[in-house]
Amino acid sequence: MAERPVLVGLIPQAVVLDAGDQASWLSDAGNLKVEFDANRCPFASNIFQAPEGMRIVSGPVTPGTKSGNYKYRLFLNEQMVGRGEVIVREK
After folding, report:
1. pTM of the model
2. How many domains does the chain have?
3. R_g of the chain computed on alpha carbons
4. Residue pLDDT, tens place only, 25-65
């Protein structure tokens, strides 16, 4: 399974995933939380959390997910610090 890292605080703010790929987020600046819309999320869970220095891994895109753009909010120490986007494309 390929992994596409997302560097918090650095560009790119969007990551492109193919079927079988997963996203990962990492921050050494504090507790990290990634939150997708509960009704529109390409993964099995819509909220991912990790303490400082620990990597968040989304897991693979849920089977049957349509290709498209899925936006998320990014929180650092419970404060929203930005927005990002996961782009799912068909193989």
Report:
1. 0.83
2. 1
3. 12
4. 988 888 999 999 999 999 999 999 999 989 999 999 998 89
Please measure the distance between the N-terminal and C-terminal CA atoms of the chain and give it in whole angstroms.
14
Longest dimension (CA), the chain: 36
CATH number of the domain enclosing 27:
2.60.40.420
One-letter identity of residue 77: N
Record the tokens describing residue 31, joined without a space: 């507790």
Taking the C-alpha atoms of residue 25 and residue 7, their distance in angstroms, rounded to an integer, is 6
Phi, psi of 7 (to 5 degrees): -90, 110
Cα atoms in the Cβ-side hemisphere of radius 13 Å centred on 65: 25
